[in-house]
Protein 1
Amino acid sequence: MTPFPCPYVFPDSRRCPGHLVKIEAFNADLSWVFGESGGWTFNHSQPRSRYQLFCSERGDHAGDSLPEQMKCYLSGIYHVQGREALNGD
Ligand SMILES: [Zn+2]
């Protein structure tokens, strides 16, 4: 499987050479539901706030000047999906 490249771009326009090694979800709801089959089913929601990306070279880039690039906010994702839906009509 091809690794996902790190999205971080340094202030001098150089791309980080790392690849993603971890994604953490913030404020996601987890639940277990007991079903008629007698087993528990695990469910998880989309996170309510954001994802934090970690790469193989610099982790979450917290020590670099633009660590915000490693945070994915869901409001932005929903906005893009909404636009695509509008264009499809
Ligand atoms: Zn990186």
Protein 2
Amino acid sequence: MSRRRVLQLAALAAVSAACADDDGPRATDSDAADASTEPSAATGSATTADVIVVGAGMAGLSAARRLADAGRRVIVLEANSVVGGRLRTDRSLGVAFDLGASWIHGTEGNPITDLAAAAGAPTVELDFDDVTAFDEGGARWTEDDFAEAEGRFEELAVRVLEEGDDDDSFEEILDEIEPGWADDRLRQFFVSTYLVFDTGDLDRLSAGLFDEGEAFDGPEVVMTDGYDRLATYLARGLDVRLGEPVVSVDDTGDEVVVTTASAGYTAADVIIAVPLGVMKAGTIAFSPDLPDEHREAIEGVGFNAVDKFLFVWDEVFWDDTDFLVYSPERRDVFNWFLNVDSLVPGTPALMTFAYADEARTSETASDDEVVALAMAHLRDMYGDGVPDPVAMRRSAWANDPFTLGSYSFTSAGTSMDHFDVLAAPVGRMHFAGEHTSREYFSTVHGAHLSGLRAAGEILDA
Ligand SMILES: Cc1cc2nc3c(=O)[nH]c(=O)nc-3n(C[C@H](O)[C@H](O)[C@H](O)COP(=O)(O)OP(=O)(O)OC[C@H]3O[C@@H](n4cnc5c(N)ncnc54)[C@H](O)[C@@H]3O)c2cc1C
């Protein structure tokens, strides 16, 4: 999904409105992620370095790469058995299924465009308007219906922005200005897929800040052979220690001491590049304690839940469009399907999504329950003759102990300054991760740029 697209649309609509009125992972088989995610790293035995980086996601690896290229001795400590963090690809079904990020959001000027090219990671542009849209009962929405509903959604988003405050939830204001908005099932689809997916739970999303964040221009492209290729590329030659969950960081002595479940490490500086969910959970003990301002920022920024599902059949039974839409009354689950056959021709598979509470609920559901719900939707769309899939894979980010959610968002209670606080060093402890990027939070490029920024703090000192 064009996660930034809705925000661009809303911003455009806001401009015209202003002119007008002058105003562990769990894939079903998660460990089946391809062995190519193993870094070709020079894993060493030293326990002392110039810099220790905690977390081998895009942020941590980007920081480590920059520091190592500048001649610093770097050890990367990663809790998981693979590098990449939320860049995780499952190839066990013969197709590269990204459990985390899929898209480069806006290719022009986006550093991930160059990184993907350098890593030899192929991409494809899908057309968000190439859609077959169904209502309940298998009735097809026309292109006009779809476009009009999109317009109604954009108008509503702009009104919420105008009438809501930062501390109000999007849903609260929506209910106030348009009671019964959810009776319009197609508009509900847009709220769900263009907004909740992109941001976070409607009842927690800030009415005044939901469109914050910058976006790159250019098309949105999808990785076709796995986003993890970028992580593997960045990790090559780095000293990455896998299966090393950090439990404490002590910045009270001559050197920073970083302790994992099995060893102790020392360095002049440390970069902590773990997800906001892990920071919220207090998994890592900091000495001295993080300042109150930092703790408030950790609490203040929202961390959502989004899960992805891949269903594979023997043959394609759906329309030859890039996306399928379904508009049931129950929102936030299996209402938007990406046609994998458009990405990798000859692949009879659909990728679909669950957001917010529906994502959290899905993670406790059995595979059979998940398949049953997806098939209820697909059979309502395409008829009772549609067979069950032959295989399924899925993520479970909210229950992954090394992530505990999917990506950050501006919730009621977030201040944009929180992102700056999250990015600010505390003593010799530096911080990176998508949640430390005021401009580009919730994205791969935000994570990458934050890693470069944290490395720069150390190199420029
Ligand atoms: C379902 C989903 C879809 C997404 N879609 C997109 C998209 O299409 N495009 C896009 O740009 N972005 C997308 N994102 C967001 C993007 O994936 C993230 O913003 C980005 O990958 C985060 O990188 P990071 O380095 O900040 O964190 P992570 O990738 O989470 O890396 C943090 C690392 O820290 C490790 N760690 C955690 N705790 C410890 C510990 N105690 N000790 C040591 N290591 C630890 C973790 O295992 C992990 O490897 C998506 C995310 C999800 C979940």
